[in-house]
Amino acid sequence: MSTQAAIELIGLNKWYGAFQVLKDINLRVREGERIVVCGPSGSGKSTMIRCINQLEHHQEGDVLIHGEAFGQGPARDDAIRREIGMVFQQFNLFPHLTVLENCTFALIWVKHMPKAEAEALAMSLLERVRIPEQALKYPLQLSGGQQQRVAIARALCMSPKVMLFDEPTSALDPEMISEVLDVMIELAESGMTMIVVTHEMGFARRVADRVIFMDQGEIVEEAPPAEFFTAPRYDRTQLFLSQIL
Ligand code: ADP
Ligand code: MG
To answer: Where is the ABC transporter domain (predicted)?
Structure first.
């Protein structure tokens, strides 16, 4: 047997009513592997990564995190979910909490960590994303790029084993994209297992072990970036790349 995957999707099928949004998705992500997911709007990218932490539920197939399947009851599912950090396009910070409180909230209320310890950990992660000086501000006092770095720090506070990113730079002004990508590159180089939905192809070239192209609910093609960008095998991939590159 091969070594255990960090994330494994096996025969995943999902419908919204009569509409099949995911079609027989099979994906195995090794520990430390970096996957970039791209594809046209509506192809099911967000739905797929939301199934990985079960923010969305599927009807057929299995989702395994470090070999353990979701669906063993709420307490166990919550424990599995805590191993997975997620960063969204729209940051999803709590507007009425400071940056520091955004980062310590789950540590204190979910992990029952003493406040001083939670604050020290949060500050170390705000340093890692290079905004410790913003700790006492509120999210809306920050730029979009800074807010997204807070969201990354907040996710990292929970010591996740894998990180999911859903178009983390799509809502940012162009001049703020690189400050977020730089933090993500640093995270990738530290060995974090990551699945990143993005159309930032420079990022994909630099950090992805594999690029996955989705269309109409299917994984159409997957390849290392060098191969994916220079010699895509399928017409649908070529058409997509011609539109974004
Ligand atoms: P992507 O992230 O690739 O743009 P999504 O996963 O968001 O794609 O959506 C895939 C398809 O599923 C789209 O056609 C979208 O309209 C549909 N969809 C997404 N969420 C829902 C929902 N909650 N109910 C019904 N249809 C949905
Ligand atoms: Mg999406």
So the answer is: 7-241
Question: What pLDDT score does 137 carry?
Answer: 98
Residue 195 to residue 153: CA distance in whole angstroms = 17
Domains along the chain? Answer: 33-43+72-243 (3.40.50.300)
Look at residues 214, 210, 218, 219 and name the one whose alpha carbon lies nearest to residue 240.
214
Supply the pLDDT for residue 244: 87
Q: How far is the CA of 52 from the centre of ligand 2 (A)?
A: 14
Alpha-carbon 14 to chain mean position: 20
Q: What is the complex's ipTM, to 2 decimals? A: 0.98
* Ligand 1 atom nearest residue 50's Cα: 6
In 3D space, the residue among 189, 192, 213, 191 whose CA is nearest the CA of residue 201 turns out to be 213
pLDDT for res 2: 55
| Average pLDDT over all residues of the chain | 96
CA atoms of 111 and 127, how far apart (whole Å): 22
Q: Say how many Å lie between the CA of residue 114 and the centre of ligand 2.
A: 36
d(CA 60, CA 90): 29
